[in-house]
Amino acid sequence: xxxxxxxxxxxxxxxxxxxxxxxxxxxxxxxxxxxxxxxxxxxxxxxxxxxxxxxxxxxxxxxxxxxxxxxxxxxxxxxxxxxxxxxxxxxxxxxxxxxxxxxxxxxxxxxxxxxxxxxxxxxxxxxxxxxxxxxxxxxxxxxxxxxxxxxxxxxxxxxxxxxxxxxxxxxxxxxxxxxxxxxxxxxxxxxxxxxxxxxxxxxxxxxxxxxxxxxxxxxxxxxxxxxxxxxxxxxxxxxxxxxxxxxxxxxxxxxxxxxxxxxxxxxxxxxxxxxxxxxxxxxxxxxxxxxxxxxxxxxxxxxxxxxxxxxxxxxxxxxxxxxxxxxxxxxxxxxxxxxxxxxxxxxxxxxxxxxxxxxxxxxxxxxxxxxxxxxxxxxxxxxxxxxxxxxxxxxxxxxxxxxxxxxxxxxxxxxxxxxxxxxxxxxxxxxxxxxxxxxxxxxx
Length: 444
Fold this sequence. Notes:
Blueprint: H1 16-27, H2 30-43, H3 47-71, H4 78-85, H5 88-120, H6 129-145, H7 148-179, H8 195-210, H9 214-220, H10 228-257, H11 260-270, H12 273-280, H13 284-318, H14 337-353, H15 363-378, H16 390-404, H17 409-440
Helix pairs in contact: 1-7, 1-9, 1-10, 1-13, 2-3, 2-8, 2-11, 3-8, 3-9, 3-10, 3-15, 3-16, 4-5, 4-15, 5-6, 5-13, 5-14, 5-15, 5-17, 6-13, 6-14, 7-10, 7-13, 8-15, 9-10, 11-12, 12-13, 13-14, 15-16
């Protein structure tokens, strides 16, 4: 390792399509393989409408991120935006929630990959679940440690496999549903006409909104994107459009083939609802390809999380909210080596104590909190620098507040508790650093 590149900027190695794959890799995973089923359990067939509404809100939030990434193209995403355009404590808490939630997501993705792989190979020994997960964390950490080029190639490969499996499911599913007259797909808006029905619908929207957060991962690596002013908006728009198209396609064939109730039941009992959909077609090849896609989707989440969180730690180290050694780059200036190692170790530890039932209970709260900070930051950009109308930022801000008050109270308890822990860490760490610096000042 080398200290030559401490505090220097990471090399720009990502074109817009590679950046878009980074975004897709972070959303085409649990969101499409699990969250749609959870939304269906909450609001039935109206989950389709919730998916569309969440996608529109995701568009607005993504435009805010695109605006901020172009105006301030450095590693750290929401952490940097909050610091630059709002206050240090808002920037820190946004980054802190991202750091904790995404590390937990990565550990769950590693366990999910292990579970899918073991099941696909027909192995019944659950004792190897954690060891296989740890091996996957080690391999992915090595790939990210090798720099952006190796991370980019690996991400593109696993995302293409996942998308191919989903396109196969959608194509076969459309033929199946048309041949059966879409008999399982029924719509009823009676539920949202009541207060509780409306709240349930908005909870589904909030849940699905979390699944449209690929743009946030792109903003984390904006320092490494070539020609950010043109590339970042293209990558973010491509990511959100592709994500919405895949989500709607999968939802349609899922609800049309087995119905929203059975889909929700499969999510609750097996956590693999798309397998139930694929099995209903009676074509083994579709089921096998979908199983492969589910496996690679877990890897893509793990890879992009190690990549994004390590860049966040780099930014936090630069501003003094984390130890300075996390800012050291390799000789080539392509990766923050110590930050990558730190993230890999943190995920590996969580794998040891976690299980595949981790549900990221504060994930929805965290996504809405980050959307609030992103929107508020975007509103601070002057008209001369603005790429998109100001009403988009206002709409995103208001919608995130409304949805936040529709989620369960315990999301708030967990989220606010973690924010408090983060603020205590920041205060304590900075006090320690200040005391250390005072001791180093030579006496006259």
